[in-house]
Design a protein that fits this description.
Keywords: Acyltransferase, Transferase. With about 210 residues, this protein is an alpha/beta fold. The chain has helices spanning about 50-65, 75-80, 140-155, 170-180, 185-190, 195-205, and strands at about 5, 25-30, 35-45, 90-95, 105-120, 120-130, 160, 180-185. Strand 2 (about 25-30) and strand 3 (about 35-45) form a beta hairpin.
């Protein structure tokens, strides 16, 4: 397992992705809360997964109480992830048909990631989203998704995995700490900054000599 770092101090630029990797990972994990064994597989996402990614993305936003911040949907994911210059990659967690969700879904979790660069550490992988539907949590799927992204990062020479976590999400913070991750905000006092669309346009059109 690679050392993962919670980076909260830089604005993320999404780089050009020029290749796709198609991998499958199968797992059988015991549910600690029951005698049911959960079968699932991990695979690279395809354009056909965008509808389910959009669904789970909104579920994640609802969990994080930020649905008003979500401005993209299925079509954006199709364009941004599966065009000639994709901005992200994904991993999908699937269960067999006989273990589908109460709403009939077999795609029950996902991770979105992309490659970035650190002027101190070199190649990095950024974990944008990690989500497992509530009824499938506690079965090893989340850890398997995170592990797969770590593997994919190592395969292309990444030295760390970066992501952000809401400060009230204690269960996630504890989970990531158990994986060997450290909280950069807590340890070093860095803050993650973001320049939104309006500010970005203003900055792009600003007078370079105006320091006000």
């Amino acid at each position: 397992m690679m050392l993962c770092v919670i980076m909260t101090y830089f604005s993320v630029g999404r780089g050009r992705i020029t290749a796709r990797i198609y991998l499958l990972q199968y797992g059988v994990h015991a549910d600690p809360d029951s005698r049911i064994r959960m079968n699932f597989r991990l695979r690279d996402s395809t354009v056909d997964d965008c509808k389910d990614i959009a669904r789970m993305l909104m579920e994640l936003a609802e969990y994080e109480k930020v649905t008003d911040l979500v401005k993209i949907g299925q079509k954006d994911l199709e364009q941004d992830g599966f065009s000639n210059t994709p901005f992200f990659r994904g991993v999908i967690a699937e269960v067999p048909e006989d273990q589908k969700s109460k709403d009939g879904h077999v795609k029950v979790g996902y991770a979105l990631y992309f490659f970035s660069y650190s002027s101190w550490k070199g190649r990095c992988v950024y974990l944008e989203d990690l989500y497992v539907m509530p009824e499938f949590r506690g079965k090893g799927i989340g850890k398997a998704l995170m592990s797969k992204v770590a593997q994919l990062g190592l395969e292309v020479g990444c030295t760390q995995m970066n992501f952000i976590v809401l400060n009230w999400n204690k269960s996630s913070l504890e989970f990531y700490t158990r994986q060997g991750c450290i909280d950069i905000t807590e340890k070093l006092g860095y803050h993650w900054m973001s320049c939104g669309e309006n500010a970005l346009k203003k900055l792009a059109n600003s007078d370079p000599v105006d320091e006000s």
